[in-house]
Amino acid sequence: MKYTSMEDFARDSSKTLYDLYKMFEEAGAIELEKLPSTHTVLVMIDMINGFARSGALMSKRVEELIPEIVSLSVKCDELGISKLAFADNHTGISPEFEAYPVHCLKDTSEAEVVDEIKNAGGYKLIPKNSTNGFLEEEFQNWLGQNPDINTFIVTGDCTDICVQQFSITLKTWFNKQNRSSRIIVPINAVDTYDLGIHNGDLTNLMALYNMHINGIEIIAALI
Question: Which chain positions lie within coiled-coil regions (predicted)?
Fold first, then answer.
């Protein structure tokens, strides 16, 4: 990376951020019932207590996603769309704790799906011991058992970490096999956290853009 002056960087970046904000502000919605139900799955990533309700990494921004994702979950049930829920479920020796505070340990309430989504039910739960749920053997088995699924609605948190890693890895997995796929991320159903220089609004925007340039469909909402 070639560094320029701080003033030039701030000026040029401000224009880029404005353009990105406008692009996503004008993103359209998709009618859920127009997606092929037998080829579609709803993916809910880390909508668990340890990110929404308690613990070192809890965020009100994540908690505020719950009603939208519950509503989407219920609509998927009505349309016969399958559902998956990933949940951080770490061992006590997870190397991830070198980068993040200890969180979502196995067999604790932090690792459990929030009650509202749990009560809606109807999903397959996949525990994960890393930020990228794609790598879990249980998900790999599910992919192999569901070869007709090629449309993924990805929701949850955090947009710039687990959502982004899963979505891009999944898209490139399909690309490698020359198989068409749709990975759809609704803006109103994903978010990240605020902490120090981790500005939630900024990192959320940049994650959406990074997914966009990697072939992920970024939409306003599913209606």
Answer: none
